[in-house]
Design brief:
With 309 residues, this protein is α/β, with parallel strands linked by helices. The protein contains 15 helices and six strands. A four-stranded parallel β-sheet has the order 4-3-5-6, sandwiched between helices. Strands 1-2 form a two-stranded antiparallel sheet. The longest helix has 14 residues. It starts with 23 loop residues before the first strand and ends in a 12-residue tail after the last helix. It binds adenosine-3'-5'-diphosphate.
Length: 309
């Protein structure tokens, strides 16, 4: 019998110093962390199963929020079940390749029992083909307005010591507009999933709508997943997935990640969770340049975002 390589799901088991700020390489022109690119064949050849649910987002769009919502729907609103493990253990991050002895997202997903909930930040064209091969795969996609994404990503890049160092804010906005951040162009990401949503089983949600009326959006997710739950259970899910409750929930706020990986002095993960925080960071001049560039990049799409509610 071939011996299984030793592995761990405990981030504390990663030897000190092996978690370092990586650099980006690219797959089909999309910049990704180099360890993801070096492991790319495994991601591209990942075998999806008919009852998988893929949660797809551009980074910082509210991934963790929708993960918590979907997990609670799957578990009929059982809050204790949703607290069985931290988010990253409950739902593998498909393309992620952490240092040993941790297993990659692909390895974790292949060890999981069905029905699997899988997270990805990959743009549509890089999602493993097997997800689209049969029309039985479903994807919940969450999009968030670009300006709040840049602000949230900037704080996260200071905090997450696996990401390239973000550098000063001024230059960071430029990198975002030049589509040089990890997972590439936000503009192409949100547009392509929007274009594809009616050709596949994709539910396209907006962070801003979830903030405005979380119950309405949770009911949309339930309908999409063919799930019916009593009203009081839906209300419980709304409560349990509110910003403040998730912020205080160690199984949903990433606080189990040691400070060798997340620099908790730089930021918290559950930072503000607002629509319009960008106004506290963009200068008037930066906003004008951003809007001009945005108009060109989003030309011809029916996709509309709200950057305030
Ligand atoms: P901010 O940095 O603006 O606070 P992701 O999970 O994709 O990395 O996204 C993280 C962003 O979603 C963070 O945004 C975080 O605060 C926000 N978020 C997470 N859970 C939320 C919730 N329940 N309600 C509102 N925002 C939430």
């Amino acid at each position: 019998m071939p011996q299984e390589k030793p592995f761990s799901t405990k981030l504390d088991d990663v030897p000190k110093g092996s978690w370092v700020r990586g650099s980006l390489k690219s797959v089909e022109g999309v910049p990704l962390l180099e360890q993801i690119v070096d492991n790319w064949d495994k991601v591209a050849n990942f075998q999806a199963q008919p009852d998988d649910l893929l949660i797809a987002t551009y980074p910082k769009a509210g991934t963790t929020w929708i993960q918590e919502i979907v997990d609670l729907i799957y578990n009929d609103g059982d809050v204790e079940k949703a607290k069985r493990a931290p988010t990253h253990v409950r739902m593998p991050f498909l393309e992620m390749v952490p240092p040993p002895p941790l297993r990659s997202g692909v390895e974790n997903a292949s060890k999981m029992p069905s029905p699997r909930l899988i997270k990805t930040h990959l743009p549509f064209q890089l999602v493993p083909k097997s997800f689209w091969e049969h029309n039985c795969k479903v994807v919940v996609y969450v999009a968030r307005n670009a300006k709040d994404i840049v602000v949230s990503y900037y704080h996260f890049d200071w905090m997450n010591l696996a990401q390239p160092e973000p550098g000063p804010w001024e230059g960071y906005i430029c990198k975002f507009m030049e589509c040089q951040l990890g997972w590439g162009s936000w503009y192409d990401h949100v547009r392509r999933f929007w274009e594809e949503k009616d050709k596949h089983r994709i539910l396209y949600l907006f962070f801003e709508d979830m903030k405005e009326d979380p119950k309405r959006e949770i009911l949309k997710v339930m309908k999409f997943l063919d799930k019916e739950l009593p009203e009081e259970v839906v209300d419980k899910i709304v409560h349990h997935t509110s910003f403040q409750v998730m912020k205080d929930n160690p199984m949903a706020n990433y606080s189990s990640i040691p400070d060798t990986i997340f620099d908790w002095k730089a930021s918290t993960f559950m930072r503000k969770g607002e629509v319009g925080d960008w106004k506290n960071y963009f200068t008037v001049a930066q906003n004008e340049v951003f809007d001009e560039d945005y108009k060109m990049k989003m030309l011809g799409t029916s996709l509309k975002f709200r950057s305030k509610i």
